[in-house]
From TrEMBL:
Belongs to the Fur family. It comes from the Bacteria. It is found in: Cytoplasm. The gene is zur. This is Ferric uptake regulation protein. Binds 1 zinc ion per subunit. GO terms for molecular function: DNA-binding transcription factor activity; transcription cis-regulatory region binding; zinc ion binding. Signal peptide: none annotated. Homodimer. InterPro entries: FUR (IPR002481), Fur_C (IPR043135), WH-like_DNA-bd_sf (IPR036388), WH_DNA-bd_sf (IPR036390). Keywords: Cytoplasm, DNA-binding, Iron, Metal-binding, Repressor, Transcription, Transcription regulation, Zinc. Its cofactor is Zn(2+).
Length: 144
């Protein structure tokens, strides 16, 4: 992953949307870019405090809310953690494979799964506005 290229893309998305990619938001983005799996807000806060000693929980949550709103990150609901999305330049279906052993998270983009879920929901009179599907198990490295 080329973090500098992702930062450049994120800044361009912010400019296009009239949003500010502040230094704190960039630092949180960079912290998430350094992770293989999800990271909890308080873990990110502790890392952020290395350079931003005055950072508080509200600091990290505001940054995470901003990054999520612009599609830069995904929230992993089952572990209450966050991960960087490298495909934030377009809207896409999201399925996450979460390793319960090492914590690694792989992001998939199956339009087939998304389409089927939307069809099944429509049969129930339900309109899906957002979806992230999470599957837990063991990754290739941990399955043995």
């Amino acid at each position: 992953m080329n973090v500098e290229l992702l930062i450049s893309k994120a800044k361009q998305v912010c400019n296009n949307r009239g949003a500010r990619f502040t230094p704190i938001r960039e630092k949180v983005f960079r912290l998430l870019a350094s992770k293989q799996g999800g990271a909890g807000a308080y873990d990110l806060l502790e890392e952020l405090k290395v350079t931003e000693t005055a950072a508080k929980p509200a600091t990290i949550y505001r940054a995470l809310d901003f990054l999520a709103e612009l599609g830069f990150i995904h929230k992993i609901e089952s572990t209450n953690s966050f991960m960087l999305c490298q495909h934030f330049d377009h809207i896409h279906p999201v399925q996450l494979l979460i390793c319960d052993e090492c914590g690694n998270v792989e992001e998939l983009h199956s339009s087939v799964i998304s389409h089927e879920l939307n069809n099944l929901a429509a049969e129930q009179g339900f309109i899906v506005s957002a979806q992230t599907i999470e599957a837990h198990g063991k990754c290739e490295k941990c399955k043995d």
